[in-house]
């Protein structure tokens, strides 16, 4: 536990609390145990930004198997809570509900607190209530449509999918160039943009139709496709991720070059708005700000990209963490940085109206004794 913020210099404040829930995989439990206060740092204004904007953050880190919840304590210090989930992948978040893809499940967490209830200082406490076992699908983006359906990027099978009561998944949409649903990660389909409550656009690293074919097209060949028409809007991106429709513009992270920007739907041109010092994945918006997740480039998929040269040009080291960007200026206004055992982020979501989120791990001993009862309203019959 970290009781008070530690000011290390005029620009940086250390996180003031971290709680962890152990997870079955040994490496994940060890990672939580080794996470030290110095491994997480924040900009001085991060807690104030969250408090002023009345929002908290949820961040998935598949490399450590953690779902990080970030809020503000009553004392004003920033608060981190880690939930061990195993391979934490695509994430959908609402104030009352979290939906997370893991190594072989889609888990639905529900907030069990009423408005006047607290667990410690937490005003939301997320408990796993439903786990749909899918097998390993390498799930990336997850969205909830306007009719309540869960749709996810089934990266392993190169399609968008929904959950099925009997089977691992049901294909919902497949690119027209994919000839077969096979567990081959052919094009690395990874991102979903909702528009008017329905999936409208997807990103993928290439249009390959052979096993792991996308790996030979990482520099250029990244696609953004219109779901309704199957039109390829562009295939000149570099490992694109996290398409999002926001205020009339289609935003996307061009991860291979390190840029956040928008797509001109008429020409397909990518218009960069700011540079991100790391392999960026995970994008959320809150009012006039973008919140972006950053990972350290690793050997293999992330090496040898234009991002390497962009970092060299700026004499910059890559980041792992989250940056908050002012959309009007493209400036980074606040940030969270992870060092040590945490090296990769996958997704980031906002929790509007939530001050301090917390929760329980699906594998924790707490789940055996954490029992809640729904209130029952009695109806009085009248003659």
Automatic annotation (TrEMBL):
InterPro entries: CHP03032 (IPR017481). Residues 1-25 are annotated as: Disordered. Residues 46-357 form the Conserved hypothetical protein CHP03032 domain. Pfam families: DUF4915. This is TIGR03032 family protein.
